[in-house]
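INPUT
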Amino acid sequence: MSTKYVYMFSEGNGTMRELLGGKGANLAEMTNLGMPVPQGFIITTEACTRYYEDNETIAPEIEAEIFEYLKKLEKITGKIFGDPENPLLVSVRSGSRASMPGMMDTILNLGLNDEVVEGIAKLTDNPRFAYDSYRRFIQMFSDVVMEVPKSSFEQFIDKVKADKGVTEDLELDADDMKRLVGMFKAYFKEMKGFDFPTEPKDQLFEAVKAVFRSWNNQRAIAYRRMNDIPSSWGTAVNIQAMVYGNMGVTSGTGVAFTRNPSTGENKLYGEFLMNAQGEDVVAGVRTPNTIDQLKEIMPDVYDQFVDIAQKLENHYRDMQDMEFTIENGKLYMLQTRNGKRTVHAALKIAVDLVNEKMCTREEAILKVEPKQLDTLLHPQFDTVALKKAKPIAKGLPASPGAACGKVCFSAEAAIVAAKTGNKVILTRLETSPEDIEGMAASEGILTVRGGMTSHAAVVARGMGTCCVAGCGEIMMHEAAGYFMIGDIKISEGDYISLDGSTGNIYLGQIPTVDASVSGDFGTFMSWADEIRTLNVRANADTPRDAEHAVKLGAEGIGLCRTEHMFFDADRIPAVRQMIMAKSEEKRRAALDKLLPMQREDFEGIFKAMGGRPVTIRLLDPPLHEFLPQEDDDIRSLAAEMDISYEELRETVEALHEFNPMLGHRGVRLAVTYPEIAEMQARAIIEAAINVKKETGLEIVPEIMIPLAGEKKELKYVKDFVTATADKVIAESDVELEYLVGTMIELPRAALTADDLAKEAEFFSFGTNDLTQMTFGFSRDDSAKFLESYYIKKIFETDPFARIDQTGVGRLVEMACTLGRQTRPDIKLGICGEHGGDPASVEFCHNVGLDYVSCSPFRVPIARLAAAQARVREIMEICRIHNIPRIPL
Amino acid sequence: MSTKYVYMFSEGNGTMRELLGGKGANLAEMTNLGMPVPQGFIITTEACTRYYEDNETIAPEIEAEIFEYLKKLEKITGKIFGDPENPLLVSVRSGSRASMPGMMDTILNLGLNDEVVEGIAKLTDNPRFAYDSYRRFIQMFSDVVMEVPKSSFEQFIDKVKADKGVTEDLELDADDMKRLVGMFKAYFKEMKGFDFPTEPKDQLFEAVKAVFRSWNNQRAIAYRRMNDIPSSWGTAVNIQAMVYGNMGVTSGTGVAFTRNPSTGENKLYGEFLMNAQGEDVVAGVRTPNTIDQLKEIMPDVYDQFVDIAQKLENHYRDMQDMEFTIENGKLYMLQTRNGKRTVHAALKIAVDLVNEKMCTREEAILKVEPKQLDTLLHPQFDTVALKKAKPIAKGLPASPGAACGKVCFSAEAAIVAAKTGNKVILTRLETSPEDIEGMAASEGILTVRGGMTSHAAVVARGMGTCCVAGCGEIMMHEAAGYFMIGDIKISEGDYISLDGSTGNIYLGQIPTVDASVSGDFGTFMSWADEIRTLNVRANADTPRDAEHAVKLGAEGIGLCRTEHMFFDADRIPAVRQMIMAKSEEKRRAALDKLLPMQREDFEGIFKAMGGRPVTIRLLDPPLHEFLPQEDDDIRSLAAEMDISYEELRETVEALHEFNPMLGHRGVRLAVTYPEIAEMQARAIIEAAINVKKETGLEIVPEIMIPLAGEKKELKYVKDFVTATADKVIAESDVELEYLVGTMIELPRAALTADDLAKEAEFFSFGTNDLTQMTFGFSRDDSAKFLESYYIKKIFETDPFARIDQTGVGRLVEMACTLGRQTRPDIKLGICGEHGGDPASVEFCHNVGLDYVSCSPFRVPIARLAAAQARVREIMEICRIHNIPRIPL
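OUTPUT
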């Protein structure tokens, strides 16, 4: 049987979103529910896919099928497409599986030409309506099909109004409209070089192709990338018989929500305009009426609409966003869909629907987009003030929230400015570990280079600080104390504002408001926690971060980066002494200075975590990160350390690496200098013993050796760790358990995970590095060329933000399987940036990890994503067993 | 049944090398053949493994077993260990599976003490012999068991000789020897703080442990690493009843080869000394007799020995290296093994053995070590001159051969010096692509940084130029025109000599000789070619390299790096214009200049290859490699290009990458600038058409897109390549086939090879990069820390030199399987450095690749290694079917 590419509304239903798109499936469903829907047909998403396979042409058999269905529609409506005596006009709308702004808009009144318009005028006895519809059609068709912007026609409307001395559209009469049609057509010909198409079938065909084309316009691609929608889905096209809200005073059109989309209040919310077509409602030319006012104007229609709205909400068990038209006093439903809403509304609606017994907690869990929670946890710009502001540039939205402050070009300046009570935006080419304190002192961070997982972005997210990264439009003139964005000069000390959720940069100060968390948030998250089976930990390096993480619901620390402690101003001298040490003895002397500091950190963290598991990673970064790179800095540090410039310079050069990411770091450091691992193991175990003694908490530290790729190297370092740990425990008067594990961040680690599991009691997937190695992409460099990859549709998502299931994911699965083969009870977690990405969290749930770990601010997101993954799993089980929905 | 750790010689046989070691297995075999072998027993390699498992102790049950076998030996010999009346003395020797210098040497006469020596003196009526044996034993035992160097005893021998006024050892009598024993024992006590062990069982035990220990001494580890011997093998210990060559004038000892190990001549070759023990023959104190002279001295013994030698050679079907002792006129065989030989001898012997019908061609193929062929193809130092020279430093033997010349510090200086007739050694911190011409002009290359696969090493091997890389002992003072090695100052213009096969660096000029290839080489290689099933191609970038490769037996080009052509002085300006171009139009203009040059190169290569397949890789390196990095160079280039310094500086900075290895290179360049791929595709296809027209050769170019990790990126670039190629072909008047494929160099490429194979008609494994990504090691940086890995026995081989079968190999196998799933006839090859490594070639044969590709000079090695892999495969099939050997 050949593929069916076209469906009448009556042939489909609400479950056919994939094939018919969301809009089409819902029109079919409403038809099935007996609601007043103008009839029509749907060209499927498969036809769109086929269109691209056929090099952007519509195959003859699909063309034939479309016209066959057009005939059916003519039969149902009793009207004929293109017949001036009894003309059928249609609307053409795109409709993909997920709602997608950026795609082709609606074309109304398609099928009009000079003859048909006269027919309409006669039939309706309303020439003004007929010509108004015609001029609208020419405008819309030109805009979305022929790339002649809609706005370029406005000049003619202005001219006609001026000639006539009026100001309102409604003051124009039939002749004026007719004059406009003439002007529009002439303008069209001038712009395109050919006449406006008069054959209705050509119009229909061009419109269908325009919908298909719009699936791949830049805006749609960008939207899909941001929202993880695959380009393979395609869009459907909805062809629907026209009804008219502009037929006179008993006609109108409107949109409404079953609940308030801003607040979630359970009350019909909407707007309408009498004697208007859909576009007028949103255009803002006339002030619309609120939906309540319909009750007064047309009480029957209002009652009917309220009834339909309630039915639809009950039917879909979610807040609905509906479009309707009233033609000569008769109500028509043009669309319904689950309505978009603010996060506050989303939480309230989810909780209310459960309380109203409209849906189960499991279903409610799916009604909030995890990423939306982000805005709950960070300050935001005051919305009124923001509307007035105009961004001067845009970078990557690297860490959410809003910030405004004075531009500082160095970490030192930022610290000084913050101490004197200033709010600071640290602005740098890129940040490095030396900038940590300056970053912590800043309200926001702005960098010229680097991607979503650059140092600045990762650290800022960890701190919950707003960050806009990789804004290439900035030309730094740091030495001269300013930077340029286009022609705008911003000097050190000037105020700028950053929106870390959009990447926008603004001149001057935009006031921010603290986010408020409603009581629904707590209720909702408690349901999520009950449902999910995947644990959520946080990446936290300090007691402060740890406390914060616990408040946000973290069940442990999945990654404590010990090197972050090394950058503290009072510690880095000892770290540098260690690096400069020419013998193991001197190195040990320097490490002895670090021991009490590290122990104290760990004590603080163990206390803050109150017995929850804590995974501590041994020193990871290449040592050169602890030394200055610039000549002046080397000179001053040498003086400070009381060594010669040459000696320090030589060490810096000796530590130089061509590809530090592939260099002397992770477990490799401990292989060369086992005494570092010994000191850290001692600090961890002593801290655990001390806290256990002091608080009575059962503490089981998890010591993590990073970057292992070979069992023997893991064993070599582990032997030092366990020897030290066992000795410290034996010398104490308490018993203490501890685990030693490794990170899986190299492809070879995943490939030999069975072997590594002989030594490792747990695996933590470091999917940042694993992604770098698997793709051969440096996260610091790839942003530059990945842009072409998105534009050229090679990649649809950033593999550093969303785990690449095909490649990296396969290694993760392989490592899980191999690891469990050797050690069935091996603990498995993930601590890369992906731990806070909802799609990646779902992947982690599905491969059976024990936990995900992410920056504290992302913990609620991960908790919700984990619950959603579990719900989807249950739904899949229900589906397999033919259970229609998760039981109430 | 418990493991058996000890075997009498009569319990073993020649096939038990794994368990008994080579020496033990051969002693057992000779015993079985009825040859006169002093009896003894063997402690197995498994006992050695057990020794390490038990923390370097000998388990009680093994101890018991050893003494049980000592009893058996006493029964066979009728002598008692430690009994002064009728003492059994033994030799203790190590014996691993493969012959391994660096392990513990022989200890003779073990079992002697003050009482036993007197018994021997009485029994033999030869006190001088008895005390000579005793003092030798003390020396040897102290040296190899107690770490008191043998040479430190020589002072006492000198003193006794001086006291007596004689110069020869033989002039010392029994009392002198007795005096020496006393002096030796006193010295031992002084050095060690305890008495020399007098209990024979203690002596035996300490000796056995010393053998086991020696398995893991630094020299042994280094040797294993160089020769790919796994540390898990362990060594056996051979305990053998002593026979004495030093018992008087009818006693003697010697070594002999069944054929000449230098020339391969089929004539018994050896040396012996009468009244001596083994060590005297090699010590060079007395001049030994040639084996022929034995015929005159003891004709019966000679005849018996010749007969045994012939039997052994026939039995082992290979040239034998034998040790023998004559005790009071009776011949004893102490050892036989396949003899080491020069490559010339190896080739002659292999060919002769086949001609003599001693072995099959298949067996002969295994008798030449592939790596040995290397010396045939490069100039070598004159051996006499080399013996006198002393290396001043040692680097990595990065590219074989010998070179001497004047030190030059820059490529420019090297070119100038070479043009004026000087031989040059280019000496640099590290080389970069800009140095290519200077490298080509040099006799040898010396670098301070970088490993076996650094730029210098890879390029030098490709050129066949001698290279010593990564000599960290060098302190460069380039600006001042000299470098230091320790206290030695070498100025620009001074002569130095490099041995690229050992890594040795010499001061001054050592004369070199061109290698001569005997006729046997051709015969032997033709057999290898008949036997092997794996094809061998070469990596070649120029017509000259291509011609050379064909001469060395290459069957195609597996990797033609187009970027090497870009570095030519007359081309790089256009390349730089392309990089600086601000628009596609300008970029195309620059590319248009490159087109005819590239086409001409390809024409030359196609002609040189005479229709053999040629795989051409599209532009691969990051663009910054084509621009200078130093400020001065940027300034002068800017002037040259007539652009501002700032503009060029800005481009250089924009192209800067933190990890260029993981940056904007390979297919990613072509995604950003498809016009580069278009130009290259055009150049390739036009060249193929031109050469086909001119010569009539059937040319099927293989166009290779590097570094793909995702099907869509491959397809994106492939579409430009095929569109261009098809257009060029259509516009011509000839038909031309071509292939488009990709490299598998990213883990993700291997993991998604089924997908990639939908677009790729061939895969070429770029195992350099694949190793980098799989291990997370940069080849430029890892040499520094990998040294610790070898010392700590974490790694036994350099994964960049020998393919890591566990990790990287698994990805290769996976990609082969997945690739064939999609495209059963997909062409599979390897073009990484591993293509010239024999062990890796065997791996490639086993996973079923179609070809390996390596630098031209390694082609003969790869051809032989491929043949050997095939022979081993046949042998394994024979083994499974119980066929004892490959039929003649």
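end of record. Residues 49 and 743 of chain A are 42 Å apart (CA to CA).
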